[in-house]
Design goal:
It contains 24 helices and 14 strands. Strands 2-1-3-4 form a 4-stranded mixed β-sheet, covered by helices on one side. A hairpin with a 6-residue loop joins strand 6 and strand 7. Helices cover 63% and strands 10% of the residues.
């Protein structure tokens, strides 16, 4: 027997589409072909069973996606029920008998008074149509509207989680698919609830036809008296209506349960027990109120006292459970104190690397002595403020720790746990920058200034006074350290600007300029996209202090194109005075290297979009010639005492920057449109 059932189950699974298709076509056959009363009884019981199963399934689902086929199933169940109604009507009007199921319902409910049965039937129809179905329909409509409105925000949240690495691509696809399925479900339920309304109305019409048609046919054609026919068809009509409407009511309740419950990852039963019986105090108060009511004169004492006792027992059990949980928590706390506060495993947040940190050798520990007026901690705070003022970048607190593996005078600057820079300083000496003049003799240990790579010497204090008289630049060791730190922060500013830092900046702006934030995020751009634009600006040493102008430019142009490189160029145009302001010479003149028109045309015709942005795809020898020309032009300009920028057309500026960035990372590249009209331009060289 078990083997036979397994074979049947496997066959049903294998030919599911055929079985379902046959069932749906059979519904139409039930409407057309007269059904024997025995077969009709079997189908009516099947209909009732289907209603019970659907209701129980809705109670056991954890979210709507576990029963996403419900709207379609609702349509099929409604058609099946209407087909049985039509078939039973045919039997009632033709034979005056519709099987044992309908007759049993009619006899049991109506008893000796079919008017009572009619009233009960009408109450069931009203409850289903006006209360359950109408409410479920409204909830479905509102849920569909809010789900569709929330889709862009949820999709952006998925993209943000994907960009930050919280989820992988496969998880993102699943979440997007579930989001679409959820929207489709509520949209379908909004329409499917109309089937139930139509089914209830059709049921009323069929009942009227059964009653009036049966009385007319059997009183006029078959010789029954009017009252006799009324009694017979009254019971049959009520039985037929109840057999149809009870499964419909079960499915309507199931629909209401499915669309009204919240997605908390638990079944309805677990959720309601957990929330309804969660507080012992509420149960005890309710028991007291019921007990007081039982002593009020004219009120039945026994039922109130029974319910009061039951509720009181539940409250007592909940109270004992709370005491047990408090006792376990106290024991755990005592064990934690006994073990010195050690708890395993530790939070992952405790082992995350800092954005920026310093490691120093034991010979430099005196620099962080709080007794010194210019101790390293105070100067680091000053550096953070300077970077915030110059670049608009909010640098997180910098942790300083000693490292015995370093040489005594060595230090390391780490960015996100990786070494970004490092050097050595001599605490009791001074750094003298080599002036490049043979007339001045410097006695000391030769070294390289760590921030800008210039030749220098570590000299004693006696030598320092002599060199200062000759105009040699002398730098204290602490200043060398913090200057190197500042330049390292500026060089790695894009890496230090994470989403959390961007959010902090935006939150500080939102207090005074809420409109620009609300317009841009999240409707037009995500936080991650804004971060990428700001990182692109910092890569070219463009300050992001004027965030209001940046955000307004993004709001204006992100409606047209959301490409990060395009948006960066538009923001640069909006910040053109800020960009050019610190690139002019002492006379307010902008010294530029121009690009030969033939070279501009060649680059323009070969620009390709890559993962890192626009890039001109040129032959290796052509790239070499361009880089040599840039180097020669820069060297010639510096011989004249100029620090020029490269001037290009707006079309090729990003591509040309990407082309020479590896060899000349600190050379500013400007588009002609980024120069204000009142700024004087002087060409000091040509790149060919």
């Amino acid at each position: 027997m078990q083997t036979l059932l397994l074979n049947l189950g496997n066959a049903f699974t294998k030919y599911t589409e055929i079985v379902i298709g046959f069932f749906i076509v059979a519904i139409i056959g039930i409407i057309i072909i007269p059904m024997p009363s025995g077969v009709l009884d079997l189908l009516l019981v099947t209909n009732i069973s289907m209603g019970v199963i659907i209701l129980l399934l809705t109670l056991s689902t954890k979210n709507v996606l576990e029963f996403s086929t419900f709207p379609t199933l609702l349509l099929i169940a409604t058609m099946f029920r209407l087909a049985l109604n039509i078939s039973s009507t045919r039997l009632i009007l033709s034979q005056g008998h519709a099987g044992f199921v309908i007759n049993a319902f009619g006899e049991f409910v109506t008893g000796n008074n079919y008017i009572v049965g009619a009233v009960i039937f009408l109450i069931i129809v009203v409850v289903q149509l006006v209360v359950v179905t109408s409410g479920a329909s409204r909830v479905s409509e509102v849920s569909a509207r809010f789900t569709l409105d929330a889709m862009p925000g949820k999709q952006m949240a998925i993209d943000a989680d994907l960009n930050t690495g919280l989820i992988d691509e496969d998880s993102a696809k699943v979440r997007r698919l579930n989001l679409q399925r959820e929207a489709d479900f509520y949209g379908s339920m909004d329409g499917a609830s109309k089937f139930v309304k139509g089914d209830a109305i059709a049921g009323i019409v069929i009942i009227i036809i059964n009653l009036l048609g049966g009385i007319l046919i059997f009183s006029l054609q078959r010789g029954l008296g009017v009252m006799e026919a009324l009694e017979l068809f009254g019971k049959l009509t009520i039985g037929d209506g109840l057999v149809s409407q009870i499964p419909a009511l079960l499915i309507s309740v199931g629909a209401g349960v499915l669309v009204t419950r919240s997605d908390d990852g638990q079944t309805f039963g677990k959720s309601v027990i957990k929330e309804l019986f969660s507080t012992a105090q509420v149960m005890m108060v309710a028991a007291t109120v019921l007990l007081i009511i039982s002593f009020v004169p004219a009120f039945p004492r026994f039922p109130f006292m029974v319910v009061a006792v039951i509720v009181g027992v539940v409250g007592y059990l909940l109270k004992e459970n709370e005491k047990e949980m408090d006792r376990h928590a106290l024991e755990e706390e005592r064990m934690l104190e006994a073990t010195g506060g050690i708890r395993e495993p530790e939070s992952l947040g405790n082992v995350q690397v800092e954005a920026i940190s310093l490691e120093i050798g034991y010979g430099l520990i005196s620099l962080v002595d709080e007794g010194r007026e210019d101790n390293l901690i105070t100067r680091i705070t000053s550096i953070r403020k300077q970077v915030a003022g110059e670049l608009g970048l909010m640098v997180n607190p910098i942790r300083v720790r000693d490292n015995l593996q370093l040489s005594p005078n060595e230090y390391i600057i780490k960015i996100k746990g990786n070494k970004a820079a490092g050097s050595e300083i001599r605490i009791n000496k001074f750094l003298a920058l080599d002036p490049g003049s043979e007339e001045i003799e410097i006695t000391g240990s030769k070294t390289v200034e760590p921030s800008f790579g210039m030749d220098a010497y570590w000299v004693e204090e006696e030598e320092k006074d002599r060199l200062e008289l000759h105009g040699v630049t002398i730098v204290e060791p602490g200043t060398v350290f913090v200057t190197h730190l500042k330049e390292t922060i500026k060089a790695h500013a894009p890496d230090l600007l994470g989403r959390q830092e961007v959010k902090q900046i935006l939150d500080s702006i939102k207090e005074e300029y809420p409109v620009v934030i609300d317009e841009l995020i999240p409707d037009l751009m995500t936080l991650g996209e804004v971060q990428k634009v700001l990182q692109n600006l910092l890569k070219e040493n463009v300050p992001i202090c004027d965030m209001v102008t940046i955000l307004e430019a993004l709001a204006d142009h992100s409606r047209v194109n959301k490409d990060v490189e395009y948006l960066t160029e538009q923001v640069r145009y909006a910040l053109k005075r800020t960009i050019v302001g610190h690139l002019t010479n002492g006379k307010g003149v902008l010294e530029v290297l121009t690009i030969h028109p033939d070279l501009e045309e060649m680059i323009s015709e070969n620009i390709k979009k890559t993962m890192t942005g626009a890039m001109p795809i040129l032959k290796p020898d052509a790239v070499t010639k361009v880089l040599d020309s840039v180097s020669n032009a820069l060297n010639a300009s510096m011989m004249k005492g100029c620090e020029p920028v490269v001037l290009t057309s707006p079309k090729i500026r990003p591509a040309f920057k990407n082309l020479i960035d590896f060899n000349f990372p600190n050379v500013p590249i400007l588009a002609i449109t980024e120069i204000p009209r009142d700024v004087e331009i002087e060409a000091v060289g040509l790149i060919e």
